[in-house]
Each structure stands twice: as structure tokens, then as C-alpha cells.
Design a protein that fits this description.
This protein has about 270 residues and is an alpha/beta fold. The chain has a single domain, classed as TIM Barrel (Alpha-Beta Barrel). The protein is built from nine helices and ten strands. Helix 3 runs parallel beside helix 4 and helix 8 packs across helix 9. The longest helix is centred in the middle third of the chain and has 18 residues. The radius of gyration is 17 Å and the shape is globular. The mean pLDDT is about 95.
Length: about 270
């Protein structure tokens, strides 16, 4: 598959490793904030089995404050200059069109937009022949957890949004093979809504478009089994394996090695006599 200027061959499922280069990350509070640490983490996750590395400079945890695109680009630029563009797929987690255009001009392969993408982004995607992750959230991170009441039905509401997006994607002639929809676990949803999304994950399959889910270390896991963010690996893997059985293509996670091993063992057992 051609993504920006590079060809990649892969088969599903894929693991997307998370690299947050912000001090305000909910999961590690800035473990990869320094450039040298980010580069080490990126290399480590790729070696552990992540086919995609998703780099984010702005925190999107519930209640977080927004960052300007200038700040975002300033943080991303030295990292993008140093990471190899041919070895693995690079995704940038950003909702700002200025940052999206900058990242694509630097050879990034996928834009992961937590706001679900804009027509301006679709134009850039067509220009650069890049990939898209389009996530659902009802509001910006600062207020999203106060908007859980907005859904008439969380499944059909999100699915309808994805269907409308698919019509725009067709308008801009973006191939379905380069687009993955993400229902946004933990983004403006309460515990029951998150569980309902997980249970009904197959319903978010829109035509031939791909499906991505990011349950990693999310607080809804603690809603089922009270736990600190560092104690949610079991809940993450359970979510991954449940969704794997239901055709999810990409898993966005922090713990790459453990997730890859869990998927490998699950598949081996399923294929054994």
C-alpha cells in the first residue's frame, strides 16, 4: 500500500504503538517528553511488534487544555526529522490542519484525527496519498466528559456520523483501504456507553473501511475493576482479544510487546487442532 511516498506491505491485525511527547499524558505523565526518550520509545515499540507508531504532541485526556499548532509543530519537528520513514508506518495524532499539513510534508504516512477529520484534511489526504484514522468524540477534551448525555443511542449515533464521513471520503476519492474508523473509547462516553461500544464493535464496520480501537489503559477499565492507570494491562488485553474476534484491524496500545504476544497466542490456539 502506498502511504505518502512509501510503499508498505502488511496484513491485519496491526498494532499501533502510542508515543505521547507531552508532559500531560494520562498514561505516563511525560515518559517520552524529551526527544531522546521519544526516539528510544519509538524504536523499542517497533522492535516489539508495532507496525505503526502514533505520535502525539498534544494531550487529549479528559479535561486537558488545547495546544496551539505552532507549539505542536515545534515539538514534532525534531522527532520527524530523525525517525526513519521507510522502516515503519508513522502516524501523527493531531486535529489541527496546520499540523496535519506540516506532518504530511515531512513524510508522515497517516493522520489520526480525534475530531473525525475535515474536508480540508481530506483534500490533503488526496494530495499526499496518505492514510486516515477518523475518531469520534462529541466535544473537545476539555469538556467531552460532560457531554455523555447527548446521545440518543450511542451506537447508532456514532455509526451515522461514520456513514456521513464515508460519503465525503467518496467525494474526495480516498480509497477505503487507507481509512480506519475509531469509535473513540473513553472520549466523551460513560462506562455503560464504552461497554456498549465494545460489545457492538462490529456495527461500526462501514462498507470496506477499516476499524481501529484504542482501549489501552483507559479509565473505563477501572470502572469495571478499580485500578490505577499502571494496573490496566489485563483489561486492555481482554478488550483487544474481544475485538480481534470481531474483525477489528488495528489496536492502538501502550504495551506493544504484551499485546503482540497475546494476539499471537490467541491466534495460535484458534488455529490449532
Amino acid at each position: 500500500m502506498l502511504l505518502n511516498t512509501h510503499n508498505f506491505t502488511f496484513s491485519y491485525p496491526l498494532i499501533m504503538g502510542i508515543c505521547n511527547v507531552t508532559r500531560d499524558s494520562f498514561s505516563d505523565r511525560g515518559k517520552s517528553y524529551k526527544i531522546v526518550d521519544a526516539l528510544k520509545n519509538i524504536k523499542k515499540m517497533n522492535n516489539q511488534g508495532a507496525s505503526i507508531i502514533d505520535i502525539g504532541a498534544e494531550s487529549t485526556r479528559p479535561g486537558s487544555d488545547p495546544m496551539s499548532y505552532n507549539q505542536e509543530i515545534k515539538k514534532l519537528e525534531p522527532i520527524l526529522k530523525k525517525i526513519p520513514k521507510k522502516k515503519f508506518i508513522i502516524s501523527i495524532d493531531t486535529n489541527k490542519i496546520e499540523t496535519q499539513e506540516f506532518a504530511l510534508s515531512q513524510g508522515v504516512h497517516i493522520i489520526n484525527d480525534v475530531f473525525g477529520g475535515s474536508e480540508d484534511l481530506f483534500l490533503l489526504t488526496k494530495k499526499y496519498k496518505s492514510g486516515l484514522v477518523l475518531m469520534h468524540t462529541p466535544a473537545p477534551p476539555k469538556t467531552m466528559q460532560s457531554k455523555t448525555y447527548l446521545y440518543a443511542n450511542v451506537i447508532s449515533d456514532i455509526k451515522n456520523i461514520f456513514q456521513r464521513k464515508s460519503k465525503l471520503l467518496k467525494k474526495y476519492k480516498i480509497p477505503p483501504s487507507k481509512v480506519w474508523f475509531d469509535p473513540g473509547i473513553g472520549f466523551g462516553k460513560n462506562l455503560q456507553q464504552n461497554l456498549s461500544i465494545m460489545k457492538n464493535i462490529k456495527k461500526f464496520r462501514i462498507e470496506k473501511y477499516g476499524l481501529l480501537i484504542g482501549p489501552s489503559r483507559k479509565s473505563w477499565i477501572s470502572g469495571v475493576d478499580k485500578s490505577d492507570v499502571s494496573q490496566r494491562l489485563g483489561g486492555t488485553i481482554a478488550s483487544v482479544l474481544y475485538c480481534l474476534q470481531r474483525g477489528v484491524n488495528i489496536f492502538r496500545v501502550h504495551d506493544v510487546y504484551e499485546t503482540r504476544q497475546a494476539i499471537a497466542i490467541f491466534q495460535r490456539i484458534a488455529c490449532s487442532e
